[in-house]
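Format notes (please read before filing issues)

Several people have asked whether sequences and structure tokens are stored in separate files. They are not. Every record keeps both together, in the order shown below: the sequence lines, then the token lines. Line labels are part of the format and must not be stripped during preprocessing.
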Amino acid sequence: MEIITEHPMAQVPASAFTSAFNTYSRKLFGFIRKRVKSIEDAEDILQDVWLQFISIAELDEIGNISGWLYRVTRNKLTDRYRKKKPENLSDQEFADDDDGISFKEILLLDTENNPELALFKEVFWKELLSALDELPENQKLVFIQNEMEGITLREIAEKSGENLKTIISRKSYSVKYLRSKLAYLYNEL
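Then the structure lines:
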């Protein structure tokens, strides 16, 4: 996980954040990891905890940093379980009269005889490319290499010399962002 020391709402001094991060990050990650299905989910929750930590106006408001971090972590885990987790774009289905087909299959369909589907595909690709441009460059690159070029996350990590967990995290963040940006298209479909 990358250390985030600059954030538009950051209030906690960087040295205090770094100290807390170095002290509690592994323990919190282990605590979260035991309670979620994937490493990506654990990293997402941990990042949310750290974002909330850096946005605190006064570090004195916390008192016991360890207790505060675990309480916030438990709250984030509870929030995650309460809200329905969105599905991957590739798992989204368009139900026709016969049976369902995946989002990816729709984008690969021959649209010569279906102008509405052709228009939908055109809008989808335009929105996807626009949303990709909004991502940080490292997340965009991992998403494109993995999803569009078919390079495995392990191969991307080896080529870039970066930790596999970092590459997985970047992919996860990009998918999460793209999912939220393109959700309205699925709803219209």
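For reference, the curators noted about this record: Residues 89-188 form a domain with the Arc Repressor Mutant, subunit A fold (CATH 1.10.10.10). The first strand starts at residue 93 and ends at 95.
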